[in-house]
Write a structure and sequence with these properties.
Radius of gyration of chain A: 24 Å
Order of helices and strands of chain B: HHHHHHHHHH
Largest sheet of chain B: none
Number of strands of chain B: 0
Number of helices of chain A: 11
Distance between the termini of chain A: 29 Å
Helix content of chain A: over 70%
Number of helices of chain B: 10
Strand content of chain A: under 5%
Shape of chain B: flat
Largest interface: A-B, 63 and 77 residues
Distance between the termini of chain B: 56 Å
Oligomer: heterodimer
Order of helices and strands of chain A: HHHHHHHHHHH
Shape of chain A: flat
Chain lengths: 289, 225
């Protein structure tokens, strides 16, 4: 059903009145919930000006929010690059015509997609910390990046695979016809087109990476949530601090999601495959942390 | 090997997984209820409800679950002193369920909306033609078909929910699997890899059958068109 407005007719006078009544009731209920939340917060003194004024001071931003945001973006940025690389390698591996490569890539990808990111993070953090292979202060960052790479790389590998499957068969046949081998045709004809088709889904996956980087909080990686919690404990304004941290995440992720939606509209004319692989893939793993 | 087996006498691994299963079970039920209501809001003719549904989904989908669950413990429990049960650990457990439900409801809403998109326009037109107004049409015609079309995405949300139940560690639910794994590795760092593989395998065993089952069910229950 493309236009969801088709669920109801163009409203006549009576329906318009009902919608107006429903609208007013709806607004009142939403306002009521908001008022309840606000009064509960105010009841505990969370809306007092002193709770929020720290966010007007430059030292709050200089010593807490910006360093935290920097570390979040650093972990997420590295993880984005490495998971795209991981995803390309294993995605092509899953499409390989050599059966053992296909099986190994398949088992690895399916296994990594089924294991919670947090388990991998805790594992790498403790294993790296106790092995002495890296400096103890580096262990959290490496653990965050490794866990995010393995999980999201596997998801991206699936995106690559579904993107290539979504291409018309003629693309590969044309590659074969001009004398390319299966691998050459995969690398130089199919995957580049699949990448364009999967770009929106890829960007949605970047949102997942950015959100999951907050798991570093649990393994003591000093990212945004960790810093804002310290700020909140120091200033005694935990709730306002967490609100600010959440607002920063929402703003970045919302911008990325909007970009993904725009791109999928913009690129739709370049991806006239058999089926829109990207759309299916967006739904595939949308609910990650 | 003996070392490894002795771990299971000291630590109760199945009990930790049972906590995750309980968290996922209750959160799944609440998320399904809230998500369905949100989806109804988003397809309803009333602009304020549409707006509320969209705002809810955009806010919760873009917030890290870690922040929501940490807020449950640091904000709701510690600062606001909201107690959902007499005992401390039951209260934290329930607050974690609230956080998991609110977060995943946004994804359930989107899954059901994608299910609504699989219902052909003619169904809605036919419902209107026989005089059904919005709510009866949604209840009798659209949603039953939409749920059947949404089984696969809903299954993905359930799988994500089970895996995400480990994040309850951020809400200080100390008895769940990731917390126990951390304790076990800290005490037996010589067995770090077997311990990790045990827990990883536990999740693989939980998650993969659900994936197979929902794929099978989505084919079996798909509305033939």
């Amino acid at each position: 059903m493309s236009a969801q407005q088709v669920l109801f007719d163009a409203p006549g006078p009576r329906a318009r009145r009902n919608i107006l009544i429903g609208n007013i009731v709806g607004v009142l209920v939403v306002l009521g919930i908001l008022a309840w939340v606000v009064s509960a917060l105010a009841g505990k003194g969370q809306l007092a000006a002193s709770m929020w004024t720290p966010f007007l001071e430059s030292r709050t931003w200089e010593f807490f929010i910006l360093p935290g945001l920097g570390n979040t973006l650093k972990a997420a940025g590295i993880a984005i690059v490495t998971s795209v690389a991981f995803g390309l390698i294993f995605g092509i591996g899953r499409l390989s015509h050599v059966a053992p490569i296909r099986w190994v890539a398949g088992v690895v990808v399916e296994f990594l997609r089924a294991v919670p990111v947090l388990l991998m993070m805790i594992f790498f953090w403790l294993a790296l910390g106790s092995s002495g292979a890296v400096k103890p202060q580096d262990a959290p960052l490496i653990a965050v990046v490794l866990a995010l790479t393995l999980y999201n790389g596997s998801v991206i590998a699936e995106l690559v695979r579904s993107g290539v499957y979504g291409l018309p068969k003629g693309q590969r046949e044309a590659g074969m016809a001009i004398g390319l081998t299966r691998n050459q045709s995969l690398r130089s004809i199919e995957v580049p087109q699949a990448l364009i088709a999967m770009l929106p889904a890829l960007i949605s996956q970047f949102v997942v990476i950015l959100k999951d980087s907050a798991l570093g909080f649990i393994i003591t990686y000093p990212e945004l949530l960790q810093y804002t919690r310290r700020l909140g404990v120091g200033e005694g304004n935990v709730i306002p601090s967490l609100f600010v941290a959440a607002a920063i995440f929402i703003a970045i992720n919302f911008a990325l999601s909007t970009l993904a939606t725009r791109l999928s509209v913009l690129l739709s004319f370049r991806t006239k495959g058999r089926r829109p692989a990207a759309k299916e893939a967006i739904a595939m793993d949308a609910a990650s942390t | 090997m003996e070392n490894y087996l002795s771990l299971f006498e000291t630590y109760n691994v199945p009990e930790a997984f049972w906590v995750n299963i309980q968290l996922s079970f209750w959160a799944a039920i609440w998320a399904l209820i809230i998500g369905t209501v949100l989806a109804l809001f988003r397809i309803s003719p009333i602009p304020s409800l549409q707006w509320f549904g969209a705002a809810y989904v955009n806010i919760f989908r873009n917030t890290p679950l870690t922040i929501i669950l940490a807020f449950g413990f640091l904000g709701l429990f510690s600062v606001m002193q909201i107690n959902l049960a007499g005992e401390l650990d039951v209260s934290l457990f329930r607050i974690a369920i609230v956080g998991l439900s609110l977060y995943h409801a946004a994804f359930v809403c989107e899954a059901i909306r994608s299910g609504v998109n699989t219902v052909p326009i003619g169904q809605a037109e036919a419902a209107r033609a026989i005089g059904l107004s919005f709510l009866p049409a949604a209840r009798l015609i659209i949603l039953p078909q939409a749920f059947r079309g949404a089984i696969a995405p809903l299954g993905n949300v359930l799988i994500a929910l089970i895996k995400n139940s480990t994040v309850a560690a951020a809400g200080s639910v100390a008895t769940e699997a990731s917390g126990l794994m951390k304790t076990m590795i800290e005490f037996r760092s010589d067995l770090v890899i077997p311990i990790f593989l045990t827990f990883a395998l536990g999740f693989v065993i939980l998650v993969i059958p659900i994936g197979l089952l929902t794929t099978w069910a989505s084919r079996k229950l798909a509305v033939a068109r």
